[in-house]
Amino acid sequence: MELEDIGWNEEFAAEFKPFAKKGWVPARLVRDNKIAYGALLAGPKELEVVMSGKVYHDATSDAELPAVGDWVALEVGVGGDDNDNMIRARLSRQTCFSRKLPGKSSEEQVMAANVNVVVVMTDAGSDYNPRRMERYFMLIERSRAKAVVLVNKSDLFPDDLNTSAKEEIEELNAEADVYITSAAKNEGLGVLKQYLKKGVSITIVGSSGVGKSTLVNQLLGDEWQWVSDVNELTGKGRHTTTARELLVLDEGGILIDNPGIREVQMWTDENTLRESFLDIDAIASRCKFHDCKHASDKGCAINAAVESGELSIERYESYLKLEDEIEELNKRRKKRQMITERRAKRDNRIKARNLADRIDYDNNQKPENY
Ligand SMILES: Nc1nc2c(ncn2[C@@H]2O[C@H](COP(=O)(O)OP(=O)(O)OP(=O)(O)O)[C@@H](O)[C@H]2O)c(=O)[nH]1
Ligand SMILES: [Zn+2]
């Protein structure tokens, strides 16, 4: 395995020159364990690494800390205890797939660095939501990666439905490549070959249950050939490598899949939910009473629409559940935000765990006029 196989290129090499003079080596981060990172080096070799106090302190926000997919300059074998591989610098990101955390408008969370292609999975059925698709496109455009959309589960829907979803998505974003696929039946996936080339990093996003894992399994093949040469070297079996968030596919291409990306599927909000019921809102505006609960209220336009067949009963029921769903969503988000903040505080403390860093860190924690 060469560095090029895992995404190294001329720009990275140019930026790395001064670091090479110090005896540091390039590595790509394949895992973020919070306490330590996993890094893949030429060889191939996989090492546990920690970030230096300088890298930690120079980061003015969490988004600037090393993330999965980043290229770093590594000092191998300093000290002698378990902290002996140190991230000395992070190279500039050529792309950066990130999201703004809900509630903290300025806080950015990096899901993966240096991703070249983001594959969005949806289907032509209940998952299909043009507003959500637009928001994915927004994230991808900001990341500077290429957008590829799979209208999956094509085996479950009529051809014309699949085609109209595809065409509508193409209208939303002329830059995106859109394909109809069935991950379960391994149909139409061949189009991904054009992206899965040596050194190209891709990641997959989409709602829960849309087929992401099924696609990953198809790409990896039945034998789950995770960077087999690395495995031979480290003696790590398939179960120990599942924690790795960056995989080199045998046929070429690098797959990045981590919890941050997985969670993007929950990244929906009140507005998106409400927008998906705009048609029903329009009907509701015809209700006789302004505060109509659309249950058995007199003069309810929604009830009338259900009776006349203009509105399906299923859609009516999900509309009634909307308010509950929004409340649930907001509760979940608040909880997640609290956990994230608490965890971030703890992790930052742990990351600065070697002694010098720790002293540095503690000094910085003191008030200015201490
Ligand atoms: N009919 C059909 N079923 C599919 C297809 N792709 C996936 N499925 C099924 O849909 C279900 C969910 O698929 P997953 O691959 O686990 O979905 P996921 O996106 O990874 O879901 P999360 O792990 O929750 O994010 C499974 O039962 C799959 O077998 C498809 O193309 N056609
Ligand atoms: Zn009503």
TrEMBL record:
Its EC number is 3.6.1.-. PROSITE patterns: ENGC_GTPASE, G_CP. It is found in: Cytoplasm. Residues 104-264 form the CP-type G domain. Its cofactor is Zn(2+). GTP binds at N152, K153, S154, D155, G206, S207, S208, G209, V210, G211, K212, S213, T214. Keywords: Cytoplasm, GTP-binding, Hydrolase, Metal-binding, Nucleotide-binding, Ribosome biogenesis, RNA-binding, rRNA-binding, Zinc. InterPro entries: G_CP_dom, P-loop_NTPase, Ribosome_biogen_GTPase_RsgA, RsgA_GTPase_dom. Residues 113-262 form the EngC GTPase domain. GO terms for cellular component: cytoplasm. SUPFAM superfamilies: P-loop containing nucleoside triphosphate hydrolases (SSF52540). Binds 1 zinc ion per subunit. NCBIfam families: ribosome small subunit-dependent GTPase A (TIGR00157). PANTHER family: SMALL RIBOSOMAL SUBUNIT BIOGENESIS GTPASE RSGA (PTHR32120). This is Small ribosomal subunit biogenesis GTPase RsgA. It comes from Rubritalea profundi. The gene is rsgA.
